[in-house]
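pinging the channel bc i need a second pair of eyes. not urgent but kinda urgent?? the chain im working w is below, pasted from the shared doc
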Amino acid sequence: MKNKALIICAISALMLSGCTKSNILASGGPAEPVLETQQGIVLDWVQIGSSLDDEFLNNEEYPMALEEGSINYSVDQNGKTIELNLVVKSGTSTEEAVRFADAVIRYLNDEAATQDFSYERSSETSYGGFSKEYDMHLIVMPEYTMEEKQYWLVDMDIPKGSDEKIVPREGAVLTEPESETSEDEEQAEDDTEESIEETTAAK
């Protein structure tokens, strides 16, 4: 009878172990991606910044973006705020500034959603889940106008979850586009200056 009881206990133990799902991967086995929402995820802002640069700089769809330093931000994760400053080329119109800012906000959100699945991705009617949790102060300014607010093209607050439409700053003064002088034109100007200096010296 004692042996029979031991056999029953052994069988019960085997049945229980068979019902328990193991979380230990077999040695050398492929790791499965974790797709469910995780708690306590800290966003990698270095990666997000790099992705933003790759997307918008030197992109024919966004010719107003500078080659460097066009997208700048400061995130307060405790206060749930983000300062987003976009610097564009001189001569950028308010319409172009609005289009650029709208694209950057949505792309930023989607990059955050790629790292943290708890954030909704952006859509035609929503900036996305990140913007539902963070108050944003948005500025779009031409280069070299940081201290000259009259030239800022956009300067507004977007409260979290509002999906408030981006609008140009009222009374913004448009800057003139920088003239693009070719190397031949620059050389011609240099030759002309040298010729004038030589003529003046001969006199």
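so The chain is about 35% helix and 15% strand. and Helices lie at 2-18, 45-56, 94-115, 129-133, 183-202. — does that match what u expected or am i reading it wrong
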